[in-house]
């Protein structure tokens, strides 16, 4: 697959609570999102880790139709730290099972 593309849909309104993050062009394999307050470019698998600082990892789930789609709950009781006025960097982490057997096949999608 060519590189993945990360996009965000919905609004940042806590009242609307409809924020969705999507990584497109990912293999239909398990993946997850993680986020942190800073950016980096550190070699990681066959890509780069682009998120730095105190990183929060969200639960893993199965990509479907080449999409890794995660709804982010905002406000009290939602995803920790995702509060009004805060800024975060997100990254998708997924396994490309079509990669070489002798190397980790983790790829990236960046915001």
What does this protein look like?
The protein is mostly beta strands and 111 residues long. The protein starts with a strand and ends with a strand. Strand 4 and strand 5 form a beta hairpin. Strands 3, 6, 7, 9 and 10 form a five-stranded antiparallel β-sheet that branches. It is globular, with a radius of gyration of 14 Å. It is 0% helix and 48% strand. The protein has no helices and ten strands. It has strands spanning 5-9, 19-24, 30-36, 38-44, 47-52, 56-57, 61-62, 67-72, 89-95, 106-110. Residues 100-111 have low confidence and may be disordered.
Helix proportion: under 10%
What is the element string, with H for helices and E for strands?
EEEEEEEEEE
Mean pLDDT: 81
Largest sheet: 5 strands, antiparallel
List segments where confidence is low: pLDDT < 50 over at least 5 consecutive residues: 100-111
Overall spatial form:
globular
> How many DSSP-defined strands?
10
User: What Rg, in angstroms, do the CA atoms define?
Assistant: 14 Å
Q: How many helical elements?
A: 0
First-last Cα distance: 18 Å
The helix-and-strand class reads: mainly beta
User: What share of the residues does DSSP label as strand, in percent?
Assistant: over 45%
Question: What is this structure, in a nutshell?
Answer:
The protein is mainly β.
Q: What descriptors fit this protein?
A:
111 residues; mainly beta; five-stranded antiparallel β-sheet; three-stranded antiparallel β-sheet; 10 strands; 48% strand; globular; disordered C terminus
């Amino acid at each position: 697959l060519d590189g993945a593309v990360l996009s965000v849909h919905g609004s940042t309104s806590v009242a609307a609570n409809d924020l969705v993050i999507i990584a497109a062009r990912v293999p239909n394999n398990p993946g997850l999102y993680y986020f942190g307050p800073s950016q980096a470019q550190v070699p990681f698998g066959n890509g780069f880790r682009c998120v730095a600082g105190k990183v929060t990892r969200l639960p893993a789930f199965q990509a479907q139709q080449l999409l890794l789609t995660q709804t982010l709950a905002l406000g009290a009781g939602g995803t920790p730290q995702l509060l009004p006025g805060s800024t975060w960097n997100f990254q998708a982490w997924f396994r490309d099972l079509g990669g070489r057997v002798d190397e980790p096949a983790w790829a990236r999608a960046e915001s």
